[in-house]
Description:
With 431 residues, chain A is of the alpha+beta class. Helix content of chain A is 47%, strand content 11%. Chain A has 19 helices and nine strands. Chain B is mostly helical and 330 residues long. Chain B folds into two domains: 1-47, no CATH class; 92-329, Orthogonal Bundle (MetI-like fold). Chain B contains 15 helices and no strands. The radius of gyration of chain B is 28 Å and the shape is globular. Residues 1-31 of chain B have low confidence and may be disordered.
Amino acid sequence: MPMSRRALAAAAVTALVLPLSACGSSDGGGGATADASGKVEGDITFETWNLRANFKDYFEGLIADFEKKYPGTHVKWIDQPAEGYADKISADAAGGTLPDVVNVSPDLAAPLAKAGLALDLDKAAAKYRSEYLPGAWAGHQVPGMTGTYAFPWYLNTGPLFYNKTLFAQAGLDAAKPPRTYDELFADALQLAHKSGGKVATLANVPTIEDFGRYGSSLMNKAGTGFAFNDAKGIELLTKYKELYDAKALDPQVLTATPESTGKKFLTGAVAMNPGSALDLDHFKKQAPSLYKNIGITDQITSTGHVNMYVMGLMVNSRTKRAPAAVAFAHYVTDAEHQMSFAKKVAIFPSTAGSLDDPYFTKEDGTDETRVRVAAAKSLKNAVNYTPVLFSEQMKTALRNEVAKALQGKQSPKEALDNAVKACDLLLQQQG
Amino acid sequence: MPPTRSTPAVPRTRPARPARSTVRRPARLAGRRPARLPVSRVRRQLPTSPWLFAAPGLLVTGVFILYPFLSTVANAFTDRRTLVPGRFVGLANFRELLHDDMFWIALRNSVLYIAGVVPALVILPLLLALLVRKNIPGIAFFRSAFYTPVVASIVVVGLIWVWLLDERGLVNALLQTVGLDRVGFLSDQWLLLISAMTVTVWKGLGYYMIVYLAALANVPRELHEAAAVDGAGAVRRFLTVTVPAVRSTMVLVAALSSVAAFKVFSEVYLMAGPSGGPAGEDTTLVMLVQRTGTGLSGRVGYASALSLVVFVVTVVLMLLVLRADRKEES
């Protein structure tokens, strides 16, 4: 049948209107409805964040044990590369192909919970709540919503590494690294001055975590707006501006990424870098000469609480196998399996009592155990400073305004006021 | 009597349409008696056949080009986010982008990118092509060498240039060796943009060189000889013989490279970082689209509006180049 122009036009209009038909009000969010009671059986998918390369055997063993414990279950494991993980999840979520159990951080869980794609574990898995550290369980709660949207999995925190050689060359006592912000800023200025601006102390601009650690109240109490433009926030940015002007920050600090700052420290271009217990092994392999001269000191904080990173396992609220998905997410994150995972890699369990295990309390004289014990101790009152509603777009907005302040294009106050305004607008748009 | 399968016949009242002969032709070519189809079947099938042949291509175009494009157009008028369908908001996204400082920065950078890259990519590959078309020993090596960046991965190329231009990279080390200060190729807003342009030009040279080599092969040698006899030197022969002869190719190169330059992403992203350089001052339009529209909190509606602007500007660019070419010809 020949296709008439009218038919062609109709097809074109339909194609144009079809996407619009998807428009409408959001279907709510929150509200996770899948029923997690019932028999644990069926096929589920499990997505992790860049873990296959190093922990293939561990996860395959874990899955086999689960399938053995619950006959009739089958877990398909998918691992995604670190790069673009959020984009992959968002594509899956938008396309309705989100796996049943997904590895998330709180800032990834929040939008999924708001879109109604995360199972509320306070309803579906309340009986497991007491197994986890209260702070870790609360880590996946979203301001403005009731409920908890992921099982807490592993935690991480870390010390501040410094290059003893560079400290000594600047006339600083390498045995006495800075412990307060004032000491840090003073040492950084001295390092820059003594090296004629050739050695910087830090290679990163202050992030939301830094503002939190310095004592700025990041959000208002209701969680409806940002507040890092307070006196503490302005003070921190003013100090960083002084460092930037004195060349105590790396010249490429305004375009730095976490990877590039790590490389700067490895090559001796900067004297200090925050890291984790994971980095020690990296230093040993990648920069043996640096490793011999590495000093390790505690994270600097004005609040008494160090920063921690939280990983979680979210259960897709639209899973057809809710009992199996909840059982598996709990199985992976229970005390026994978190402990066994922590012995494979330098991470810390989020289950109650696990950090009291001798593995996390006794040193054997090596740097590894020293860092591990110190980190485990600090985790007991650590805080995840990154607000769960702080999206990538907000990070960029803050970063750009901070850069303008460091370049002298605007005052620290103006920069932070603008950043708060931009982040509030984005928060409002998130709904 | 209506034609049947057993008594095939061509109705006298309606002359055979040219298409019918095409139905028979393959059988004739095969040297067999043509298997004639019943007229009713022929009538029914023939107008559909071209569509069936085109169907795979149309399907791919429709699914992967037309539908996403129409979807983008539709989304541009909504406040859609990655996980939220959104509502129709009319021209609100377009009004917002007019007041968005980052949009104007990105537009400025994309336009500057065209201004910096296109002239270089129109002229330099032509000179390179003139150089490597000579038949001298070892020239094949240089042809291959100049083409190598084209086939290299942009990520690899980007990383190599980042290493070269780093504060402690090879270029700065060389500058220091000759007593000069280090240059902030990757920390200064303008130097970063120029560095990214350099990478784009370096990577594109080989491709356009091949295009020019093909065009130069069609320039009659006699023209050069005649000009030489008339006393024209190398520069004059280049300007009066070579350039006019490859003018349409130059227009093609200008059109292709300006569209590519306007849509630049990888080079700037790799060299300036995901935030788009210091304070985002090196962000290009496509980077802004990516940054705005992706992620779990991506503003798909607003990013679609930005994409439409990129599309419109690209089309206008193409039309301007083609119009300039037509004017020149007339």
